[in-house]
User: Fold these one by one.
Assistant:
Number 1:
Amino acid sequence: MLNRDETIEAMARSPLDLLVIGGGIVGSGVARDAAMRGLRVAVVEKSDFASGTSSRSSRLLHGGIRYLAQGRIGLVREASREKVVISKIAPHLAIPLPFTFPTREGTEWKLWKLRIGVKLYDLLCGGRNLGKSSWMKPAELEQKLPGLNQNGLTGAVRYFDGMTNDARLVLDTLRSSARSGGMLANFVSVEETKPFGEMWQATLYDHVGEKRINVTAKAIINAAGAWADKFPASRVRLRLTKGVHLVIDRSRLHVDDAIVMTEGSRILFVIPWGERIILGTTDTDYDGNLDNPTADASDIDYILDVTNQSFPSARITTDDVISTWAGLRPLIADPNGKPSDISRAHEIRMTEPGWIDVAGGKLTTYRLMAEQTVDRAITFAKLSARKCETDIAPLLDAPPKYSGITPPPVSRDAVQHFIEHEWALHLADVMIRRTSWRYYHRDHLQIAQQVARWMKEILGWDDETFRDELDTYSRQTSNARGEEASEFRTAGNETKVST
Ligand SMILES: Cc1cc2nc3c(=O)[nH]c(=O)nc-3n(C[C@H](O)[C@H](O)[C@H](O)COP(=O)(O)OP(=O)(O)OC[C@H]3O[C@@H](n4cnc5c(N)ncnc54)[C@H](O)[C@@H]3O)c2cc1C
């Protein structure tokens, strides 16, 4: 693999077939697809890979049981097939996850309708869902979930989706791209783009080397997610909505399956995640800062209220919250209607010759979005390319060492691996995107100190850089619970760190 400077120089050396803006799941998917077809492709990311929405999702590979209720059969079929594809190409990032969906009298979620729905759901995966759906009577449900609010229960359906790790899916997709010759650089922004004869020219700014370079490309793929409407050639019109998740300890809610909780027409999830549980999510219009959306106290209260209504004896409070994250859904604009009703379909549009916007969609459908986008670019630029094999080729060429659904143990070897093989440059790159240690461990600030010491040794940071990294990390990770930089202190229940 080329080092960072060599990669950036190589991007500028001769015209690219494709320049991809944005190293989220969509840009990474395009970079993988294009590289595997033999195209000269580069992807640049203004911050860390996956630092946008693609590390802030519910981490589900799903057809979307909710969209089925809305009659969006085509969308559900497409996503259902893709969830099965991802389970084949990246089994380490797609475990079958059963969902129990309790139904109650007086709500719009009727048992008989859901029983038909989940059968259809299995069929829409081409009959090969990750597990077979079933249903339960109230007595069975009560035995299985004794803590569940029993008021008006009419039964439950049980169906299967997949659990993934969003940021790891981005990183492993990028590793696959790099293996096929894709050129990748994080902390490089696209500052300006303009037509350049038959091609496009982009001015890039390298935040590490603090220099500008110009690259030319036959086509530009705008995969900038929530930022996609910021370029002059873009015709993307977005309606951003914020979704928040909370992490609590597994001991606080005794569930084996993921549980669906309803609040009117909305659904929220209790998602088992190793020794933790993820609760979420919200869906509210957003017009704040795009770079680091955070969970407000009202978001946290809302999720806790819905959870405590479903599991009254659990009495979960803000003290139980280990961590939170908030993400922005880059939905295609529809000024009318509730946020949760806006379509999750994707759009691929060439707005000017050689400028392709790819927007909307979801994590689950990223591979298909990438295939369709690269097809479009190949046809426009008359590129000679091999056929797409992203649906059958495994993402990794060896068993995963430090990639999976739950975080790896904290170790120096893992940190070295992320620096040498996965483009980690800053403390947050390791603590958040590469590992999720920040979300999984209550004592993440102590872990961050140890990780920073290892990064100092490996990357040769001076004392000032070391301090800056810790300061930046604690600023970025302080949240609505008021965690502060000053919390670099010793706490109980410390995570085991192997050196
Ligand atoms: C709360 C929530 C829950 C979700 N849950 C699920 C789920 O369970 N399953 C599912 O399938 N989907 C889910 N989604 C949807 C899914 O997460 C998103 O559709 C997907 O991550 C969007 O990826 P993206 O690549 O388009 O955007 P991003 O991941 O945001 O990537 C865009 C990137 O472009 C970069 N960028 C912007 N401007 C520039 C520039 N000038 N130069 C260089 N780089 C630039 C940004 O820094 C960013 O990293 C969820 C979304 C949210 C918000």
Number 2:
Amino acid sequence: MVAMRAVSVVHVKQVRCNGIFQWYSFTMKLEDILKDTTTLENGCMVWNKSRTKGGYGQKGMNGTKYYTHRLVCEIVHGAPESKQEVLHSCDNPPCCNPNHLAWGTRKQNVADMLAKGRNRSNGPSGENHGMSKLTRMDVVEIRILSKNGFVLTDLAKMYGVSAAQIHLIVTRKEWKEVPEIGDFFTS
Ligand SMILES: [Zn+2]
């Protein structure tokens, strides 16, 4: 169990429409967020008011909308280090249970997301390896992971292909027809 602080000054990252981040601080009580959640059987405390398209809870204050899971994470675990984002151990975006939330890096978040997706689909790694076994989605993922700091040898293991093949994908010498897709792991 996480020791909960009832009141905390939170520093919440706000995304401006031009994409520049700014930091604001204010005082907020944990109970002010948790009173608007519903506790599920698995312990998830899901935000039952406004949500984003991605399912994350959002709370408006002083004309700005904040992610509720980030507010909770900040109150309970303190301010994030630069570039940290919230990891949901329960994989449930609207969940605000402090015990299901932790700060982590983009790399951890992406790896976590892929591991969960991979377990559901049994993924490409497993049986016959080789270029033909990769899907277009794998190629997109590999390029995103590479940009986020994954090294060739790790990617090769994850996808069951050689590091040389990963290199060809990352440098766009293979699978040229798969378009570049922007970074969609932002939350
Ligand atoms: Zn949860």
